[in-house]
Amino acid sequence: MEKKTGTTTVGIRTKEGVVLAADTQASLDHMVETLNIRKILPITDRIAITTAGSVGDVQALARMLEAEARYYQFTWGRPMTAKAMAHLLSNILNENKWFPYMVQIIIGGYVEEPTLANLDPLGGLIFDDYTATGSGSPFAIAVLEDGFRKDMSLEEAKELAVRAVRTAGKRDVYTGDRKVQVVVISKDGMKEEFVEFKE
Hints:
5-stranded antiparallel beta sheet; alpha+beta; Glutamine Phosphoribosylpyrophosphate, subunit 1, domain 1; 4 helices; globular
């Protein structure tokens, strides 16, 4: 019998940068394993990915991307852009389509320009202004579609991202709604925070 897991991660791109947000609950079937897991992983000081799917697969991909980013920096003397990293990850996923990494990833970063992309397990790549992944994504994307504006500030995007994850957590039993991990990436760098709710 298959065990059900789930999560919700979202990303929003603005003119000022990128906001990534995710719940912090790890679940396995009907059991909550922890309420304190990080689902947004930094790859460089300007690029991060969100995790939905197999934790081991995402961790392996994150290690590959970190190594590729360091190699790129060493070879070319400049950081890899988030767009280039998204294309690289798309190729890695597509090369493994017969034995796929069971992941759905959002990649966000600010190297030269704010970039946000969504990747499916087979390497399908979509660049967008906002996106959501995981079992709660249908609920989160509805909130994002309703609240997104092209001219929104990073602070407004952060509030919208938290609201989207929290809404998903209220409707999707596999998404937590008590704590939201938020990563904001701008030209000034990357900042992480956790937004907690008592109820």
